[in-house]
What does this fold into?
Amino acid sequence: MPDILLPIIALLAGFILLIWSADTFTENGAKIANIFKVSPLVIGLLIFGFGTSAPEMLVSGLAAINGNTGLSIGNAIGSNIFNIALVLGVSAIIAPIEVKNKVLKKEWLFLMLVTLVAGFLLWDKHLGVADGLVLVFLLIVFLTYTLMTARNSNSHEFDEFSETIDKSQTKKTWVMLIVGLVVLISSAKLIVWGGVEVAKFFEISDLIIGLSVIALGTSLPELAVSISSVLKKQYEMVVGNVIGSNLFNTIAVLAIPGLIHPSKVADEIIVRDYPVMLLLTLLLFILSYKFHKKHRINRFEGIVLVSVFSIYMWQLF
It folds into this structure.
């Protein structure tokens, strides 16, 4: 039994560090948005979306270098499932999430497009260099569009920062943002290691570990940042974080194995995991879009998303 003690300690320490770093990261990300008068949605899409997808990119890259592309692909798709079903679901249960109409018309539409393109690329059960390049092209298009529209939005006010932030704090804010991100990623890695060791101790298969423990571990930053944003009433950043993270997972994380180590795609990905990801991406729109001015995901709909997640996990095990 002592063999299991260190991984359990790693898990507990990882969770404690994750909570602190998520709060630090969210707080300073909001300050950056206020200083530069940038929309919190853009901060959610770029800084939080890219930053909290860093664990997936790291895991995907390492797995691809080692020739384990199944883990890379499973991690990308599994993380997307966790982000919508668990992250957004739990966030909506804590407080109903308002989704702005422009998000559904632009960012969600782009997410749906790249999800369909990814499905088309995976359909022949092979992920190669050409597929990776298509995904990288979509990433460049997304980043260019987001940066071009970053300063056009008037939505840059935060409840927490009604007064103008002193620009002399900019350097300190950037430093704390980076420190928060580094600890966020490190704590996620600690949790993944602990979780994998615990799973191995109880003799759970590598495929299930990849789709559950590693996908959950690399999605924990998104969960922590989203919950922290909800508690600060920064709802726009929650949606931006989830959509941004899923975009990076689909086009950046999924491109990595194709570019580094072209290989076959497991049947289970096509039959079981991708359809669930596609369903949840559609559900995100269906639950958000109401036939009145305010589009929001309420607590009941949050429970629906968490229920889909529970059924998926039950299917895995």
Summary: The first strand starts at residue 97 and ends at 99. The CA atoms of residues 85 and 306 lie 5 Å apart. The chain has one domain: 40-150+202-316. The first helix runs from residue 2 to 35.
